[in-house]
């Protein structure tokens, strides 16, 4: 065992760092996809695109519901913080649904969890690292039922061409119109809604204005 370890260290030390970086990430991507519940995945065909998942950093798919991803959507940005950490996508209950539209790109370590309603992203969205989205409170808020699921999940709807900064949290019932921009670190409370092309910032988040026209 010691000799094997030493040989492995020797191979690593003689490898091109850029090659080693790519190989390590590739292995992690394959591992997390291998242990995912792949039967839940539906790849939605897009004209001119190969019918494949675009996983550039580790991404874990779980759940009993449906996960529908357009063929041109992308999970992961290799040259960005957290590129070895796994994103987590779970349609937790049989009624759950997660949809990702064409051209939408998630940076690293996003978390999408649907618990009976739905989470939908439109086309051509740009998502910063460490996004967290849930369509439920995870637990019932009544003290006597705190260990039970949220009885009233609510759908999260993200329109086309929405730009979301890093470490944003979207809670159940959030609706963002097309073209919105959400600033880094924002927390969008349950039921928050923003009209198209809104600039959203803060914790709790508020609409501060409109995106520039040019």
UniProtKB/TrEMBL annotation:
The answer to keyword Transferase applying to this record is yes
| Ranges in coiled-coil conformation | none
Answer yes or no on keyword Nucleus: no
Q: Which UniProt keywords apply?
A: Transferase
Residues annotated as signal peptide: none
| Molecular functions per Gene Ontology | transferase activity
The record's PANTHER family line, in alphabetical order, gives:
LIPOPOLYSACCHARIDE BIOSYNTHESIS O-ACETYL TRANSFERASE WBBJ-RELATED, SIALIC ACID SYNTHASE-RELATED
What is the protein's given name?
Answer: Acetyltransferase-like isoleucine patch superfamily enzyme
């Amino acid at each position: 065992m010691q000799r094997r370890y030493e040989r492995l260290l020797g191979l690593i030390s003689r490898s091109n760092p850029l090659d080693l970086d790519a190989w390590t990430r590739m292995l992690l991507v394959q591992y997390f996809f291998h242990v995912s519940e792949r039967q839940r995945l539906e790849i939605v065909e897009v004209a001119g695109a190969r019918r494949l998942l675009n996983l550039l950093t580790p991404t874990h798919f779980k759940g009993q519901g449906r996960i529908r991803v357009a063929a041109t959507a992308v999970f992961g940005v290799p040259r960005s913080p957290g590129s070895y950490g796994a994103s987590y996508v779970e349609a937790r209950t049989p009624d759950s649904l997660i949809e990702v539209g064409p051209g939408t790109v998630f940076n690293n370590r996003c978390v999408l969890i649907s618990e009976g309603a739905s989470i939908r992203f439109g086309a051509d969205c740009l998502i910063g690292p460490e996004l967290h989205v849930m369509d439920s409170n995870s637990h019932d808020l009544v003290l006597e039922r705190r260990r039970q699921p949220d009885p009233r999940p609510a759908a999260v709807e993200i329109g086309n061409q929405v730009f979301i900064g890093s470490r944003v949290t979207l809670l159940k019932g959030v609706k963002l119109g097309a073209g919105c921009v959400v600033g880094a670190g924002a927390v969008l409370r349950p039921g928050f809604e923003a009209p198209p092309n809104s600039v959203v910032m803060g914790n709790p988040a508020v609409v501060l204005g409109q995106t520039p026209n040019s």
